[in-house]
Amino acid sequence: MHVSAEAVVLAPMLGLTYAWVASRERPTRLQVASVAAALLLIFLSFFTELQHLATHTFLWAHLLQNVVLAEWAPALLVLAIPSSVGRRVRIPMLIALPVWLATYAVWHLPWIYDYALHHQHSLLHVEHVTYLIAGLALWWPIVHGPEPTGVKAAYVFGAFVLASPIGLLLALIPRAIYSFYVHAPRTSGPGPLEDQQIAGITMAFEQAAVFFGVFALFLMRFLREEQRDPERFVELRRPS
Questions:
Q1: pTM recorded for the entire structure
Q2: CB contact at 8 A, 89 and 82
Q3: pLDDT tens across the length of the chain (240 residues)
Q4: DSSP secondary structure string for all residues of 116-169
């Protein structure tokens, strides 16, 4: 057992917030299951041995936590919001995507990443909260936005293309760049460089699977819509 604020404070706060939302707009069973899965993911990521590995030994473990907070949990939380509530909040794609990308990029700069890990009771929590907020912003217009299906497909594809260099760089750089993990005590497992390569490859493949899967879903939906109503798309393409 490894207690962290994310597990014992953040996850319960998210649960209470969702309960408040659900008391006003009744969610479906699938939406309740979605929020339960998100909270369980956060809890397990920060209350199990993964928390100890991430904050003491291995980069791959910390990157897995970051992926949970920046991608998986936010997607499940946004899916859990009733549509009637989601439509009332507008988050423009042109704001959400740059914010998410900037959050990922800034926190992965070596000097900032190391500084946060050396301040695990303060700045590291800020890092994790910003990942969650940016992730919610990223997924919100995909699930609740009024944009056409084709635009949503392009948005998801753009997120994948623009975010993938982070994982690829970590996998390809020929030296370990995070001093915290270079000097971390290890009794077994991969060394610092191998750890970084595993983290980068895992991150790259995870993003490819998640974002390309969502992109394919929206692309197929877009093509079905075009087949059902081809005249509508001709009108959209015709100059005014």
A1: 0.92
A2: no
A3: 677 999 999 999 999 999 999 998 999 999 999 999 999 999 999 999 999 999 999 999 999 999 999 999 999 999 999 999 999 999 999 999 999 999 999 999 999 999 999 999 999 999 999 999 999 999 999 999 999 999 999 999 999 999 999 999 999 999 999 999 999 999 889 999 999 999 999 999 999 899 999 999 999 999 888 887 665 545 545 554
A4: HHT-TTTHHHHHHHHHHHHHHHHHHHHHH--S-HHHHHHHHHHHHHHHHHHHHH
The number of distinct structural domains making up the chain is 1
* 63-100 burial code (b ≥16 CB/10 A, e <16): bbbbbbbbbbbbbbbbbbbbeeebeeeebebeebbebb
Rounded Cα–Cα distance for residues 39 and 45 (Å):
10
Give residue 136's identity as a one-letter amino acid code. L
Give the range of the structural domain holding residue 151, as residue numbers without chain letter: 5-237
Which of 50, 80, 83, 85 has the alpha carbon at shortest distance from 64?
50
Pair 132, 199: CB distance under 8 Å: no
Residue 190: CB atoms within 10 Å: 15
**DSSP letter assigned to residue 101:** H
The residue assigned the tokens 């996850």 is 11
Contact call for residues 233 and 226 (beta carbons, < 8 A) = yes
Question: DSSP 3-state helix, strand, coil percentages of the chain (rounded to 5)?
Answer: 80, 0, 20
